[in-house]
Amino acid sequence: MTARQRWTPTPLQLQILERLFDQGIGTPSRQKIKDITKELSQHGQIAEQNAYNWFQNRRARSMRKQHGVGVGSSNNKNGESEVETETLNEKRKRPDGLLALPDGNNNNNLIGTTTTTSPRHEELCFQCPEMRSNLHLLGVHSDPRDEHLVGNLGLSDSYNLYDHV
Amino acid sequence: MTARQRWTPTPLQLQILERLFDQGIGTPSRQKIKDITKELSQHGQIAEQNAYNWFQNRRARSMRKQHGVGVGSSNNKNGESEVETETLNEKRKRPDGLLALPDGNNNNNLIGTTTTTSPRHEELCFQCPEMRSNLHLLGVHSDPRDEHLVGNLGLSDSYNLYDHV
DNA sequence: GAAATATGAATGAACG
DNA sequence: CGTTCATTCATATTTC
């Protein structure tokens, strides 16, 4: 069983998540999580728990400047609120113009004992699609069915955005 | 340039780190990390994050040795006497199966030159790890806050209410 | 020099 | 919510 045990968000999903995190402040409500998950499902495999964890991790990572070295940047003792402005931080940085990557060897199966020394390394796996997503309307379904997919996450349904507008 | 993209501890630093690790500090607190980093700074360049990561990796590595991964074949490379009786607590078990994604959508055609004129292929080729690597190298990791890129991400107006302008 | 390995770094998931 | 564990990724190092 070589299935992925760990969810890995696709770039599109990441994009959406980042955007949501950027505009959202804190922990999304449960309904929101469901909604987001539903939308993200259109772009890849995802569960509500994944989205929830992602937001939690994201927030925890954002608030890691004064408390601990935690995981992330080197050391940021600034008192500025990074929660909304961490745009300046660059996490996934790749070194300067050294990205002249060798030809894509599309096989990193390290456990494989076979010597897959395929001499042909013609990169062929790059069909990067447009980043534009047809992510249109997020279903504003007023379906308050309470699914216990992730159990009680302790999410507060305090501000239901749907009711606000 | 071409400097150490990755921190490499000097032998002296490694010595200190190992000694500290041997003392039984399974989880050094942040203050400890700071202190240790201070100490290590006298022997070479280091950041708190480095020390933190080092301890994390060290601990994870030790745990792995004890339990034995048993990936696939009987790839048992035991014989390490370095593992001490530090913290052989019970390993955190994670009952899988919850997020076992079906492999139906994992067969991403990388070549993509087929006559698949399907209109929506946004996330078609973004599941395999090898592609992720290539994408990283190419810096295709989408900019989180790129407005025009995210353009019609379709953050529906319901969500925009957080965007208090 | 390429493959195999060691290991630092990133991150999803879980615990308290 | 903050912290920690576990897994993966990327790169430095070693080996052949």
Can you offer a commentary on this structure?
- The structure is a homodimer of 165-residue chains.
- With 165 residues, chain A is mainly alpha-helical.
- Chain A has a domain at 1-73 and 134-159: Arc Repressor Mutant, subunit A, CATH 1.10.10.
- Helix content of chain A is 26%, strand content 0%.
- In chain A, helix 2 packs across helix 3.
- Chain A starts with 10 loop residues before the first helix and ends with a helix.
- At the A-B interface, helix 1 and helix 4 of A face helix 2, helix 3, helix 4 and helix 6 of B.
- Chain A binds a DNA duplex (16 and 16 nucleotides) through residues 5-9, 27, 49-50, 53-54, 56-57, 59-61, 63-64, 67-68, 70-72, 91-92, 108, 110, 115, 117, 154.
Q: What is the structure about, briefly put?
A:
With 165 residues, chain A is mainly α. Chain A has 4 helices and no strands.
